[in-house]
Amino acid sequence: MKAISSMATRHVLAELTEAAVTAGLPRVDVDSVGGVDAAQRVAAGEQLDLVFLASDALDRLAADGHVDAASVVPLVLSQVAVAVPSGRDDPAERPDGAAFPDAGGVRDALRDAQRIGYSTGPSGTALVAMIEEWGLMAEIGDRLVQARPGVPVARSLADGDVDLGFQQLSELVGQPGVRILGVLPADCAIDTVFSGAVAATASDPDAARDVLAFMASAAASGIKTAHSFGVPAAS
Q1: Are 52 and 196 in contact (CB under 8 A)?
Q2: Which pLDDT tens digit goes with each residue over 57-81?
Q3: Phi-psi region for residue 189, left (φ > 0), alpha (ψ -120 to 50) or beta?
Q4: What would be one Pfam family of this protein (predicted)?
Q5: Which of 118, 196, 200, 217 has the highest count of CB atoms within 10 angstroms of its CB?
C-alpha cells in the first residue's frame, strides 16, 4: 500500500507501519514530504491508499472529495516546544513541563532573541499568527528566520543560524546541538493534531481502514509517546 505524509510524522509512522505488519496488516510505504506538497499531490489525484496530514489539511481534502471523510481519524497530538543551541554533539532530551510559566515569558524571550527560528507547516504558521496577535511583528519581524523546506529548526539551532527556536517537540527530541527548554505554556500552546484518512484513489479501501484502525488503537499508544507525541482525546 502507498501513503503520503508530512515530514512531522515520518519517524512515528515508520514505526507504526512496522507494528501494523507485525499485527498481520498490509505493509504501507510512506512518502514523507512537505505538508503543502503532500496535499497538492493528493488533490492532483496521485494513486495513494492512505494520507497522513494535519487535521485541518485533511478536512479540506475531504471536503473536496480527495479522501474519504468518514475515514478521517486523529492519530497523534504534537506540541510546539522552545529550544536553544547546546553542545554540538549533545542529544536533546525531552523536558518536563512548559518552557515558561505563561505567555508573558514567551514574549520576553522573543524580544531578547537575536534570531528566531520557526518551521514551515501549521506550527510555524500558528507561531507567526500569534506574534502578529501580540503586536510584536514590527519589533521582531526582521529577526524571524523560517527554516527551509525539509530542514528542521533543530539544524538551524545546532549550526548557530538562530539562537531561539520553535518547533514540534517530536522534531527536536534527540537532535544534536539542541537544548529543549520545554513546551509552550497553556495560555499560548500551539498544538497540532495529525490524522489519517483513506485516499479516494485507494486500491483496497477496507484494508486501508484496517491499518488506520490499528494506528488509532490503544495498541499503538506506546509508539506515539515514545516519539514524543501525545494521544488525541477521543471525540
Answers
A1: yes
A2: 999 999 999 999 999 999 999 999 9
A3: beta
A4: SBP_bac_11
A5: 196
Please give the grid coordinates belonging to residue 119.
518551521
- pLDDT for 95 equals 76
Dihedral over Cα of 43, 47, 50, 51: its sign: negative
Measured over the CA atoms of residue 9, residue 14, residue 15 and residue 16, the dihedral's sign is positive
CATH number of 2-76+194-226: 3.40.190.10
Residue labelled with grid coordinates 518551521: 119
Give residue limits of the domains in the chain: 2-76+194-226, 77-188
Calpha distance 73→194 (Å, rounded): 9
Give the whole-angstrom CA distance, residue 158 versus residue 130. Answer: 25
**Maximum distance among all alpha carbons in the chain?**
55
Task: Give the whole-angstrom CA distance, residue 114 versus residue 164.
Answer: 8
Q: Which CATH architecture has domain 77-188?
A: 3-Layer(aba) Sandwich (3.40)
pLDDT tens per residue across span 76-105: 999 999 999 997 677 777 776 677 899 999
The residue type found at 130 is: M
Q: CA-CA distance, 61 to 65, in Å (whole number)?
A: 6
Distance of CA 18 to the CA centre of its chain: 20
